[in-house]
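Consider the tokenized backbone below.
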């Protein structure tokens, strides 16, 4: 079979669908589509149904109850579902504007989006702002300056003896060497009683080898 659609002719009100035989082109059937042109026709081989697209945006389906399978047969005969109460009351979530209401029941006017975002940005809860540093330890948190041993050493030794950028490093090292020699603080006081005079290892000649390092003669 061959199908073709026909638009509404002048003086007529219906479009027409013509069906011909493939071998002889003999017209087998002519179907009328009221008040609309026929834009496109298609036959689905698995469903065995004819779909017609109309000019008014609708779709017409032709099928045989015995020879067709599924498709339009799935929803033919079903009753129209009733609207639920929640679908009817769709404006419940919309804001109700009452300009003359009492101050107790008066709601805030809807603000523009950018002002709303700026206000939420200032809110520490909505903006998820982290906790600010505190001056003293509280609730298991360390203070801003720190209360550990490393922070104490850095604060009391590192910052108090900070070297300026314009200072000569050689003069700074010589000054500390002089202070260490005159006022020993770390190592020298520990050996003041047991070893007042420093004893250093004597330098040995690299050419002289010990008895243990000499090769043995067999």
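A designed sequence for it:
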């Amino acid at each position: 079979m061959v199908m073709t659609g026909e638009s509404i002719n002048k003086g007529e009100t219906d479009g027409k669908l013509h069906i011909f035989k493939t071998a002889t082109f003999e017209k087998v059937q002519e179907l009328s589509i009221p008040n609309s042109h026929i834009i496109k026709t298609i036959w689905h081989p698995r469903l065995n149904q004819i779909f017609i697209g109309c000019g008014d945006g609708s779709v017409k389906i032709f099928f045989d109850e015995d020879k067709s399978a599924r498709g339009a047969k799935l929803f033919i005969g079903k009753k129209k579902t009733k609207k639920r109460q929640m679908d009817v009351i769709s404006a419940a979530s919309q804001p109700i504007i009452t300009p003359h209401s009492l101050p107790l029941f008066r709601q805030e006017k809807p603000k523009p989006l950018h002002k709303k975002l700026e206000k939420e940005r200032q809110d520490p809860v909505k903006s998820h702002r982290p906790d600010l540093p505190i001056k003293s330890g509280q609730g298991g948190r360390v203070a801003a300056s720190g209360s550990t041993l490393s922070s104490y050493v850095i604060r009391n030794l590192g910052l108090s003896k900070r070297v300026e950028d314009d200072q000569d490093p050689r003069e700074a090292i010589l000054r500390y060497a002089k202070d260490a020699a005159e006022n020993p603080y770390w190592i020298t006081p520990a050996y003041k009683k047991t070893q007042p005079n420093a004893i250093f290892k004597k330098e040995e000649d690299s050419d002289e080898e010990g008895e243990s390092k000499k090769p043995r003669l067999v």
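The first strand starts at residue 2 and ends at 6.
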